[in-house]
Specification:
heterodimer, A: alpha/beta, Aspartate Aminotransferase, domain 1, Aspartate Aminotransferase, domain 2, 7-stranded mixed β-sheet, 4-stranded antiparallel β-sheet, B: alpha+beta, 6 helices, 4 strands
């Protein structure tokens, strides 16, 4: 695959002419699972916001590790261990590059975005959030960016404030500004909504938070697979994401935190690898990131994630994003024409996520019938019950697209919905 | 497709669109809430029992076709039944959904409820079909905690 890396800015029309046009046909062969059938039909995998499929390069990196590189990292004086350590630390550097952090010491490997948020809530929150302090979240948050803060608020006697959304699913920024005050310790917001696809203006929101003296956490679980990320441009204090949503393996994720903040945070879990010296009287801790990586980490996961980031960079997130936006428009246009279908969440800035409800069928029934047509979508509340409550619905059906999806996948979805109508209409 | 037809039989679709005994029962001695967090189904089941016999049973709420139809057909099947018979019907119904093993006595007990046999091929939907039944049991036992099928 010939690849040219071209800098282009999202949201300014089509990619620059220098970039070769992206075609999913060039890369679908890289994904073994996309060659499968479901119920005897071609598989249309449209549940990418839940997890992405893995290219052969990622599967091979993990296999290679266990075939020829496996040893525990750090402290081993033999060749295999030293090589495993170097590969693991190279993966950390790969992540740093990918999100443009200043130093690889700002990158902590965790299980996923959920663990990263829990780490910040427990460690930073435990040390910095006091009774009467406030934490601002938004209605769009995934439960993973709500519950850890609720647990912290309960422990500390702090208060959660919630930014509302308008009818199309965009954050009400004027309300956000009113919520900011000297008691605000942290603003924790999602970059892209997993339920509706809304892209939040995180850069502006971070600036406002900093002006009010608060720190910021951006949940990048849904943005990293679709948008080029520059944590220094966003200027957030914490950024979290999961590897499995960007073609990497499950069980590996990333916490980015500005170095001074990270070094000042107390440990999250105790154990091996996170210490300098241990006696029964006292333990001194290793500096970050090791301080936050107690125990043997997910080494193969980190390597797999690095391979995934290589793969994505090889195609180019600009081209990926540009293509996904075209496919999103195509899908929205097709779905709008389905009688009785209503799209929930129509923000002006949107990633390739389409939540919808049908007037005549419950999302769960829609999901079962579509499955019979080889179409994999998600149905339910998408771990976003506050979003569902905002719209007064128990659930939606959600099709979430990736760069390996095609118009054929979308057409298969629309045809499947005809089947739903046949049964229920 | 044949599996889907088995699942969404005409009788089930009919009850899903026009649920029977779909109302509150202010004078009911027993009521309980059921919730299936997986798909967001929420039901409230009301039941009035006199001398060990179900005199009246009804429900309200919203859910998928399978849970709504199951609740609707449950109310029809259990009206006027003794508590012992209701329990036997529930056991047969549960067997029908989970094991598929049923004897002649089950067929007799189940009657129209046999249309739910197709649910067995869709394991994630079994909880939809049993939600109303578990909720009814909670109502009869006077359980205050909402029933969750997940």
């Amino acid at each position: 695959m010939a690849v040219t890396t071209v800098k282009s800015t999202r949201g300014q029309g089509s990619p620059t002419p220098l970039a070769p046009a992206f075609s999913p046909d060039d890369i679908r062969g890289d994904f073994p699972i996309l060659q499968l059938t479901a119920h005897g039909r071609r598989l249309a995998y449209l549940d990418n916001a839940a997890t992405s499929q893995k290219p052969q390069a990622v599967i091979a990196a993990i296999t290679r590790f266990y075939n020829s590189q496996n040893a525990n990292i750090h402290r081993g004086v033999y060749q295999l261990s030293m090589e495993a350590t170097a590969t693991y630390e190279a993966a950390r550097e790969r992540v740093r590059q990918f999100i443009n952090a200043t130093d690889s010491r700002e990158i902590v490997f965790v299980r996923g975005a959920t663990e990263a948020i829990n780490l910040v809530a427990t460690s930073w929150g435990g040390a910095n959030v006091r009774s009467g302090d406030e934490i601002i979240l938004s209605t769009l948050e995934h439960h993973s960016n709500i519950v850890p803060w609720q647990m912290l608020a309960k422990r500390a006697g702090a208060v959660l404030r919630v930014i509302p959304i308008n009818d199309v699913g965009e954050l009400c920024l004027d309300e956000y500004e009113k919520l900011l005050n000297p008691r605000t310790r942290l603003v924790a917001i999602t970059h892209v909504s997993n339920a509706l696809g809304t892209i939040n203006p995180v850069q502006r929101m971070v600036r406002l938070a900093h002006a009010a003296g608060a720190l910021t956490l951006v949940d990048g679980a849904q943005s990293v697979p679709h948008l080029p990320i520059d944590v220094r441009a966003i200027d957030c204090d914490f950024f979290v994401f999961s590897g499995h949503k960007i073609c990497g393996p499950t069980g590996i994720g990333v916490l980015y935190a500005r170095e001074p903040i990270l070094q000042a945070m107390p440990p999250y879990q105790g154990g091996g690898d996170m210490i300098e010296t241990v006696t029964f009287d006292q333990t001194t801790y290793a500096p970050a990131p090791q301080k936050f990586e107690a125990g043997t980490p997910n080494i193969s996961g980190a390597l797999g994630l690095a391979a995934a980031l290589d793969y994505i960079t090889g195609i180019g997130l600009d081209r990926i994003g540009g293509y996904e936006q075209q496919l999103l428009l195509y899908a929205q246009e097709k779905l709008t024409r389905v009688k009785g279908l209503k799209i929930v969440g129509t923000a002006a800035e949107k990633a390739a996520v389409i939540s919808f409800v049908l007037a005549y069928a419950h999302p769960h029934d829609v999901g079962t019938i579509l499955d019979g047509q080889g179409v994999a979508i998600r149905t339910g509340h998408h771990c976003c019950q506050p979003v569902m409550d905002r719209y007064g619905i128990p659930a939606t059906a959600r099709a979430s697209l990736a760069f390996y999806n095609t118009r054929e996948d979308v057409d298969q979805l629309v045809l499947g919905l005809e089947k739903v109508k046949e049964v229920f209409g | 497709m044949s599996d889907l037809r088995e699942l969404y039989q005409e009788v089930i679709l009919d009850h899903a669109k026009k649920p029977r005994n779909f109302h509150t029962m202010p004078d009911s001695a027993h009521a309980a809430d059921g919730h299936n967090p997986l798909c967001g189904d929420r039901l409230r089941v009301f039941v009035r029992v006199e001398n060990g016999v179900i005199e009246d049973v009804s429900f309200t709420g919203s859910g998928c076709a399978i849970s709504t139809a199951s609740a609707s057909m449950m109310t029809e099947a259990l009206n006027g039944k003794s508590l012992a018979d209701a329990q036997a019907i529930f056991e047969s119904f549960h067997n029908l959904l989970t094991t598929g093993n049923h004897a002649d006595k089950d067929e007799e007990l189940l009657g129209k409820l046999a249309v739910f046999g197709g649910v067995r091929e869709f394991p994630v939907r079994v909880k939809c079909a049993t939600l109303a039944w578990h909720t009814l049991q909670a109502a009869l036992q006077g359980s205050a905690a909402p029933v969750k099928t997940e």
